């Protein structure tokens, strides 16, 4: 393998690991750890709202943890399982990717079904000071309610799908 191909594999694996880290930090209520996942100016659009900048992301996702932590355990009110991750390096320090989300609720609730939602993360990544970070992320829900961008995909308003 050439050095460029090896570097591309290393970059791709580092980028994929960001989603795994995000899941572990969020589920364990470690919002401070999100600085290892997002750029300082990141934009995040998820079911609990849109957030701009790392501090707003910490606050918004911390609020989601509190909202779902009905048993007041302090962590793991949900479990984010991510799969089918693809990454496309689009430049020396930028990339894009998508992955599936299977989100489970672990807190007690009237409905015994632990499945909270199914969705797609669309991400843009940027290398900052030699480290990959998510610079933009949008969660599109597929179930229980289908998001508009899932059924009416428009490349002008969303990241491209793999060929």
Describe the structure.
- This protein has helices spanning about 5-25, 55-70, 150; strands at about 40-45, 50, 80-90, 95-105, 115-130, 130-145.
- By secondary structure, it is α+β, with helices and mostly antiparallel strands.
- It has a single domain, classed as Nuclear Transport Factor 2, Chain: A (Roll).
- A 6-stranded mixed beta sheet has the order 2-1-6-5-4-3.
In short:
With 163 residues, the chain is an alpha+beta fold. The protein is 27% helix and 40% strand.
Q: In CATH terms, what is the fold-level topology?
A: Nuclear Transport Factor 2, Chain: A
CATH class: Alpha Beta
Following the backbone from N to C, one meets helices and strands in this order, namely HEEHEEEEH
The domain count comes to 1
User: How much helix, percentage-wise, in residues?
Assistant: 25-40%
Kindly report how far apart the N and C termini lie.
24 Å
Structural class: alpha+beta
Taking Cα atoms only, what radius of gyration do you get, to the nearest Å? 16 Å
Instruction: Compute the number of strand runs.
Output: 6
What's the helix count? Answer: 3
Q: Unreliable segments (pLDDT under 50, ≥5 consecutive)?
A: 151-158
Give the overall average pLDDT: 90
> Mind describing the biggest β-sheet?
6 strands, mixed
| Range of strand content | 35-45%
CATH-defined architecture: Roll
Shape: globular
Strand order of the largest sheet: 2-1-6-5-4-3
């Amino acid at each position: 393998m050439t050095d460029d191909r090896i570097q591309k594999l290393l970059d791709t694996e580092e980028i994929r690991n960001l989603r795994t880290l995000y899941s572990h930090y969020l589920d364990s209520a470690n919002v401070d750890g999100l600085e290892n996942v997002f750029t300082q100016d990141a934009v995040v659009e998820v079911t609990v709202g849109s957030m701009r900048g790392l501090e707003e992301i910490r606050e918004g996702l911390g609020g989601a943890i509190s909202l779902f932590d009905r048993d007041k355990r302090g962590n793991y009110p949900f479990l984010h399982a991510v799969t089918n991750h693809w990454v496309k390096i689009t430049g020396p320090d930028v990339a894009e990717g998508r992955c599936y989300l299977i989100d489970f609720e672990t807190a007690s609730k009237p409905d015994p079904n632990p499945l909270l939602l199914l969705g797609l993360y669309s991400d843009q990544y940027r290398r900052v000071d030699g480290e990959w970070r998510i610079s933009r992320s949008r969660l599109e829900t597929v179930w229980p309610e289908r998001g508009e961008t899932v059924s009416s995909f428009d490349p002008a308003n969303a990241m491209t799908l793999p060929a």
